[in-house]
Design a protein that fits this description.
434 Repressor (Amino-terminal Domain); globular
C-alpha cells in the first residue's frame, strides 16, 4: 500500500489536474475559497491539506464528477 507521502502527492495531483481541466488558476481558486494565492500554492506543492480542503476546492471550481484513475 502507498505510504502517506504517496497519498498526499496523489491528492495534490488530482486537484491540480482538475484546476487545469476547469481552466482555474491558483489566484482564482484563492478568490473562490477566500484564501491567499501563496497559501493555495504552498498547500498544493506540499500536498499537505485536509480532505475538507480538497472537497472545498473541487466544489468551488465546479467539479461534479471525479475519476480516480
Amino acid at each position: 500500500m502507498p505510504d502517506q507521502t504517496d497519498w498526499e502527492a496523489k491528492a495534490a495531483n488530482i486537484l491540480k489536474a482538475e484546476l487545469k481541466r476547469q481552466g482555474v488558476t491558483y489566484a482564482r481558486l484563492a478568490e473562490l475559497i477566500g484564501d491567499k494565492e501563496p497559501n493555495v500554492r504552498n498547500k498544493l506543492s506540499r500536498g499537505k491539506f485536509s480532505a475538507a480542503y480538497f472537497l472545498q476546492c473541487l466544489t468551488a471550481i465546479g467539479t461534479e464528477h471525479l475519476h480516480l484513475d
